[in-house]
Design goal:
- By secondary structure, the chain is of the alpha+beta class.
- The protein folds into 3 domains: about 40 residues, no CATH class; about 250 residues, no CATH class; about 55 residues.
- The protein is about 25% helix and about 30% strand.
- Strands 6, 7, 8, 9, 10, 11, 12, 13 and 14 form a 9-stranded mixed beta sheet that branches.
- The site of zinc ion has 8 residues, from loops.
Amino acid sequence: MFEVSCAACQASFEYSPDDYIHLCPFCSAGFIIDPDEGAKDLIGDHYIIPSNIQKQNVDEIFEEWITKRYHNPSSIKSEFTILGSYGVMLPYWVVSVEAHTFWSGHSAKKNLYPGRVRDLASGFLKEEGRFSRRYRWAILARKSPKEHWGMERLHHPRETVMVDWEGFPLDETMGAPDEGVKPIYESKLPFKYEQATDIAVASIQTKESSAVSRAKDQINEYHRRMTKTKVGTLYEHRTEIEVVGLHVVHIPFWYIRYSFAPKSMFKFFTTARERRLLVQGYTKAVLDAELPLNSSDKVMTNMFIAGTLGFICLTLSVFVNSLFYILFVIFMLVVILSTWKIISREKVDTDNIKGNENQEPAGG
Ligand SMILES: [Zn+2]
């Protein structure tokens, strides 16, 4: 291991060469070491959001969540078990920006005189517009967003746009806090290890320059997709992004692992595996969850019922009326479609399992 002395209190401690900002375990100061000259540069803008969840609250959060979702609340106690939980403070580069977008394009004009032939040139309407937005865009300051489950798709857009990046507008995405509680960003405090209250603090691994360029790329793409929803054919899109602030903030998250063992007939169709819940530590919002019954469980039930009915109809077609054979064919089609759905679903499942590797941090 490598040893370094703190730039603020001079105490020496072991550090990881993977870290970009080194955090002193004694005084909580953060500093960057110049790789060429070895000079240490203290950082100032480092904050932490306190966690409103402790280990003992995990049960009630899970219960509240599952009670709203499960069709049979009285059997929750006997069918669901919490297998474990842990909290983690993850570092984010929070890039405050102002983004200004200009766009232009063509939309098909409505035909005001039905029955009359329109010429192509007047059939389209040129449209253009501008809009500006402010964001506090959060970029994970860890080398891999797959380290913890559910981190790579947190973006909550107000628009109906497809999002395939890992950064997000902080305030919207982290969920609304309870009434009378400050919004998440305003509750930040200068970083101190003591404020993490026994939750593991993940170190800061990535540079601010990469966070800023990723945030800019993502916002640019986000605005481009938004403008595409406004117009039939988008010709031009320009987004200018001005960075007005940059902080590193440790944000609390909680993971709850649970198992589901139904007593009803569903027990024949569910696979015994563990499921996860990602909870925001400050707002207590459930950000992502693996549901007790996923779609392939339901499709499996479907397949079983259709198969049984199909068999009954086949029997009836032999002994009662040959018209039942038509029903048999229909039920068999349902079975075949269900099977196909499960097979194509399986590919997605193995992908999820890959993200399973990292579960609980050692000693966390
Ligand atoms: Zn120190």
